[in-house]
Design brief:
Strands 4-5-8-6-7 form a 5-stranded antiparallel β-sheet, covered by helices on one side. It is built from 12 helices and 12 strands. Helix 5 packs antiparallel against helix 9. 47% of the residues are buried. Among the domains are: 50 residues, Uridine Diphospho-n-acetylenolpyruvylglucosamine Reductase, domain 2 (2-Layer Sandwich), CATH 3.30.43.10; 100 residues, Enolase-like, domain 1. The radius of gyration is 20 Å and the shape is globular. By secondary structure, it is of the alpha+beta class. It binds iron/sulfur cluster (SF4). The site of iron/sulfur cluster has 14 residues, from helix 8.
């Protein structure tokens, strides 16, 4: 591992100031992804600013019926918090389906948003071609072993997927990411937080240099009673999604009055299926409706040599997740 400077700060303003003063620096929270990447030479920061003592670990109700998740609350504490379990079970399920208990005990909510892709060509510096790790070097995955890779929103520069489960649920719940930076506070809707790769796959998010995530705000949700997170993976624990589905329904009897449907494991960001949501909305829950939504949701998928199976897997996954969410499975 390359040597680096270390600095610990006690409040958000000081941490933002420190990151602005130290060249090539990064914030350190749980470190469950960053330290691994530093050990294998993918990330090479010159300095780390430790933010673990910042007072950002609270989970609290908001006056509008929503909930604020502190950026430094641990994933386990978030998933097991009574407010989250009662109001956002979709989020609790999604978090608990990710990583391992040990990792969830250390990983933070802010860090979960900033996870980097597990594309093997990115993770292993022995591969020369990776535009995300080394811009302009090419993409080893496009003609290589791309079984885990994206089928939506890809570019000629990168076909990586975003690895988080939590973010798929946050996209369905339309979370807002609260940021503190050198210019003050701003809020980014989750749909605009993660980027598609385009010509600059090295940038995963729309965060600006020096900005710190302080909380994730969840609006009041009508989906507590009818939601499901389905994760399909190679083994039942400690594995990333081949495909995942966050399905949430608001029902009036057996009529769907609103729906949220988001896929994970298929794009460089959580992939929301808004056209499929429109098909569901206003109609009675029936299997052929779920099938129509799934068919529409998968339109426009572009596959590569080894990941063609994801279209069928996601189609079936959408139908299953909607059935469980609606109680008609
Ligand atoms: Fe790198 Fe993206 Fe290509 Fe993977 S898919 S090798 S992360 S450029």
């Amino acid at each position: 591992m390359q040597p680096f400077k270390y600095r610990r700060e006690e409040n958000s303003a000081a941490a933002v100031a420190a990151i602005g003063q130290l060249e090539h620096s990064k914030f350190l929270a749980g470190g469950t992804n960053l330290i691994d990447l530093m050990k294998n030479g993918v990330e090479r920061p010159a300095a780390l600013v430790d933010i673990n003592r910042l007072p950002l670990a609270k989970i609290e109700a908001l006056p509008d019926g929503g909930v604020r998740l502190g950026a430094l609350a641990r994933n386990s504490d978030t998933a097991n918090h009574p407010l989250v379990r009662e109001r956002y079970p979709l989020l609790a399920y999604a978090i608990l389906s990710g990583a391992s208990p040990q990792l969830r005990n250390l990983a933070t909510n802010g860090g979960n948003l900033l996870q980097r892709t597990r594309c093997p060509y990115f993770m292993d510096t022995g591969f020369a071609q990776c535009n995300k790790r080394d811009p302009g070097s090419g993409c080893g995955a496009i003609e290589g072993f791309n079984r885990m890779h994206a089928i939506f929103g890809t570019s000629e520069q990168c076909i990586a997927t975003h690895p988080s489960d939590m973010c798929v649920a946050l996209a369905a719940l339309e979370a807002r990411i609260v940021i503190m930076g050198p210019q003050g506070e701003r809020i980014i809707p989750i749909a605009e937080f993660h980027r598609l790769p385009g010509d600059t796959p090295q940038s995963d998010t729309t965060l600006r240099p020096g900005e710190l995530i302080t909380s994730i705000d969840l609006p009041k949700s009508p989906y507590a009673r009818h939601s499901h997170y389905l994760k399909i993976r190679d083994r039942s624990s400690y594995e990333f999604a081949l495909v995942s589905v966050a399905a949430a329904l608001e029902l009036d009897g057996d009529t769907i009055t609103s729906a949220r449907l988001v896929l994970g494991g298929v794009a460089h960001k959580p992939w929301r299926l808004e056209q499929a949501e429109k098909i569901l909305t206003g109609n009675k829950m029936e299997r052929h409706l779920f099938a129509a939504a799934a068919h529409t949701g998968m339109e426009g998928a572009k596959t590569f040599r080894y990941n063609r199976y994801k279209v069928e897997m996601a189609t079936r996954g959408i139908r299953q997740a909607l059935g469980v969410a609606g109680g008609v499975a």
